[in-house]
Every structure is written in C-alpha cells, then in structure tokens.
Write a structure and sequence with these properties.
By secondary structure, the chain is an alpha+beta fold. Helix content is 17%, strand content 30%. It is globular, with a radius of gyration of 19 Å.
C-alpha cells in the first residue's frame, strides 16, 4: 500500500473497561485524505519519504519552516491556539476579557480544566481541558493518570500547576518514556494527598474527590534500547520495521523513533 499527503498528529482511541483487561490505544495516522490504521502495521516494514514541502495546518500556506508544530509564522503570532497560555496556563487572561480571540477562548479557556498527576517517564503534573481527557495523557505517553483538581477556567488550573511545579516535574523525559525506563514506584494517590497539602487555602477548594486511576496500555511489541530520533529536516527517507507506538511516537526495530506531531504539515509518502 502507498499513501501520499500532508500528515497530522495521530488520532487515538482508548477505553478502559471496568473489570477487564484494557485494550491498547488504537492509533490512526491522518495522511492527506486518508487515515492509516497504524496498530495493524506492527511488525511491518514501513518506508517514509519526505517530499520537501511543508504546509501550515491552519491556513494551508506553503512554508519553509513551521512554528509550534505545524503553523506558519503569521498564524503562530496571531492564533489563540498558539498563544503563550497554551504552554503556560497561568498566563491566560481570557477570564479578564483578554484573548487573541474571545469566542475561541470561551470554548477553550473559559471552560472546565483539570490539573492532573500522571506517570510518563516519572511522576508529573499537568493541565488539560475536560474535552482532552484522555487524549492529552495518551499524547504524553502516560501509563497512568489521576485527576487532582477541577477549575472553571484555564488560568486557575495554571495557578495550581505553578505551585506544584516547585515539587513535581511538569515535563516528560521522552527518552526514558520511549525506552520503557519508567519510574514504577510512583504512587498517584499518595502524590495527590501530598499535592493537596502543598496548595494554599484559596486553591484547595478545587481539589476533587476523584480516586479513579486511568491506566493506559500502548501497542508496543518491543522498545528501543537507545533512542535515535528521526527528523525529516535532516533525513528525507528511511525504511524500518514498526515495533511500537507510544505517545505521538512511532518506534522502529533499528532504535529509531519518529515524532509524528513534530512533523505536522509535512508532505510525506508512506509505503508498506
């Protein structure tokens, strides 16, 4: 089979059924007008070729370089989805009526947000919109996650995260995550109790009673022993056998890994 088109971050589907062995995350790679079911390709040899074109994932402009994982520079500096508060929620000012696009903010910033604890490479704290659970956890390669707090907007969730970043990591060691070098000693329930004690009184009211831990299983036959990252900006084509998928990464038998999200908007040939 052969596909050609602009690729976007992989779509994921996951359900954790009570009392049963969870199925692995199901991944689909959007490429042009098609969606490739990636789980079915485990154990197959894939060949990727970069056709030396990048398109902005918002306006479709042909660009030489992408910003914020897929945007042209004009979109990067003007769109609400690339504003500073996307990476740093505490900078959000939508609750004060300030935003690049207030209508967008009503749907994405002035809605319920969750502060969560997750085990990716180790224990970390993060923020996500209600609509992005569990997608956000999957994109980070989390193996388990627990909701800590629920807030009515992005800013307040960011305030909680800022306090907790002094005591918990807020980033994933992606190399450890992709080599399965994960801290298995992390206890999310214990960490939630500790986090609650660390918050000032005005933020403690947002802590939830949630105790259900979401565990996530990924379609991985084998992990690389040492990660070698592929970039289409440096490597125009490669061929290898797919051994796993975790987060937004494809894992291959030669220890190479490909971050699909990093290449949003790239025009690619995929053949298997």
């Amino acid at each position: 089979m052969k596909y050609q088109g602009v690729i976007l971050k992989m779509e994921s589907e996951y359900r954790q059924e009570s009392g049963s062995q969870p199925h692995a995350v199901e991944y689909t790679l959007p490429i042009g007008e098609d969606g490739v079911a990636m789980n079915r390709l485990l154990g197959r040899q894939l060949e990727f070729r970069y056709l030396k074109k990048i398109y902005c994932i918002h306006c479709g402009a042909l660009i030489k370089k992408s910003y914020a994982q897929g945007y042209c520079y004009p979109c990067f500096i003007s769109l609400p989805e690339t504003d500073a508060c996307i990476l740093r929620p505490e900078l959000c000012r939508a609750h004060e009526g300030i935003s690049r696009d207030l209508e967008w903010a009503k749907q994405n910033c002035l809605t319920d947000h969750y502060v969560y604890l997750a085990v990716t490479s180790g224990l970390k704290v993060g923020v996500t919109r209600e609509s992005q659970i569990p997608t956000r956890w999957i994109d980070q390669g989390a193996e388990a996650a627990l909701i800590l707090a629920r807030t009515p907007n992005r800013y307040l969730a960011g305030c909680i995260e800022v306090v907790l970043k002094e005591h918990f990591a807020d980033k994933t060691n992606w190399r450890n995550m992709l080599t399965d070098n994960v801290d298995q000693t992390a206890n999310l329930l214990t960490a939630k109790e500790r986090a609650g004690r660390l918050l000032p009184d005005e933020l403690k009211d947002y802590i939830t009673d949630e105790s259900r831990i979401t565990t996530i299983t990924y379609p991985v036959n084998s992990y690389p022993s040492k990660v070698k990252s592929i970039s289409f900006d440096k490597t125009e084509s490669f061929k290898a056998t797919l051994t796993g998928i975790k987060g937004q990464y494809l894992l291959f038998d030669d220890d190479h890994v490909l971050n699909i999200r990093k290449h949003n908007g790239y025009l690619i040939d995929l053949e298997y």
